[in-house]
């Protein structure tokens, strides 16, 4: 008989020990790359090993190289954590090992994604009938949404891009804010449109697209896609989506919204005004592994027009089994073929939290970001942004080198972890509050550590 209890028992014990230790664990890796190679490397194994021993060896070897991004004091990269229900569902997802590409390959995965998709559309207040794809993250969500956009704006001028490609096609102009996220540029490279297709639109001091600049740029006409942003990755600021949709649709342009974390503001009654008019866009991208706090990887793409969504993504082959009753095949909505059944974890997270629980996480993270900013500002640290959501951007003594040294000192000290960035040509510390466990004690402890590191660096 196969011994499942040994390796799975070892994994369970080590997993629960790791999770229980997160609240007090040093927030940062404790080993160098050389030390990790020493612990994990060696010659290619020539024969089999006991599975439980392999798991124990792996867990011990990586322990000091883990970045505890599930900690309530981790404020880097807009990472979320993992709620208990979503983590447990993700474990079962691995155990069930379903290929979620086709309904025929896993009816359960297909139906769970269908149900979860409907919940998400309702949660975000998007148009009924909006199609949904479960992808790896906002990068592929942006790619997929822009692929649907590419299909539709070229179809309107009589060009079939899926059949004929882009050689000889009418050029597409992509109007995007000067402070857009880099995943937009990368998606356009993947789609063959290239970054030269981008028309940068001027932004204000918070990174919001200026409607007057967009209006002027739209006058050139032709096939056009407008990329709006719900949540600037540095400041958290929101483009004026309602106005953008009015201007763009008047010129026949498609509006895609990069809402990697910001679209979750729609769930909060107190923050929803930030995304006024977002339901009028044509496609949207977001991450479930941010504010829904499900395990990596989990991204979502939405399209108000299912036909171009399917046209850009779907595939037919003689050996594939498309259900005769028209059940949902996920490969019609994302760029993958074989794929993990990501819907199980998203389903579990939504069912466990409900609308009110998700709103509470978003509101609390916003409040904690404000608390962090207020504490630092009260102690002489310059806060560079309006804290409208979960992002805090700070700078020390208006000095690039000092700011970078404080960021490194905080990372080395280990109480909390946040990254550095460059904002409008100046170095800054970027604090992202996205974890479902973060509370006042995490903020106060972290702010004190930042101030202590600043003082030490200044004295040095």
Task: Kindly describe this structure.
The chain is α/β, with parallel strands linked by helices. It has a domain at 88-349: Type I PLP-dependent aspartate aminotransferase-like (Major domain) (Aspartate Aminotransferase, domain 2, 3-Layer(aba) Sandwich). It is 42% helix and 12% strand. It has helices at residues 5-21, 33-40, 51-62, 84-96, 107-124, 138-155, 161-164, 182-190, 211-218, 241-250, 306-313, 343-377, 400-413, 440-459, and strands spanning 131-135, 173-177, 198-201, 224-229, 254-258, 283-287, 299-303, 382-383, 391-395, 419-423, 426-432. A seven-stranded mixed β-sheet has the order 1-7-6-5-4-2-3, with helices on both faces. The protein has a four-stranded antiparallel β-sheet with strand order 8-9-11-10. Helix 8 (182-190) links the parallel strand 2 (173-177) and strand 3. The N and C termini lie far apart (63 Å). The model has no long low-confidence stretch (mean pLDDT 97). It comes from Kribbella capetownensis. InterPro entries: Aromatic_deC, PyrdxlP-dep_de-COase, PyrdxlP-dep_Trfase, PyrdxlP-dep_Trfase_major, PyrdxlP-dep_Trfase_small. This is Aspartate aminotransferase family protein.
CATH superfamily of the domain at 88-349: Type I PLP-dependent aspartate aminotransferase-like (Major domain)
The CATH class of the domain at 88-349 turns out to be Alpha Beta
The proportion of strand residues reads 5-15%
Distance between the termini: 63 Å
Strand order of the largest sheet: 1-7-6-5-4-2-3
Whole-number mean pLDDT: 97
What is the H/E order? HHHHHEHHEHEHEHEEEHHEEHEEH
Rg (CA only):
23 Å
Identify the overall geometry: globular
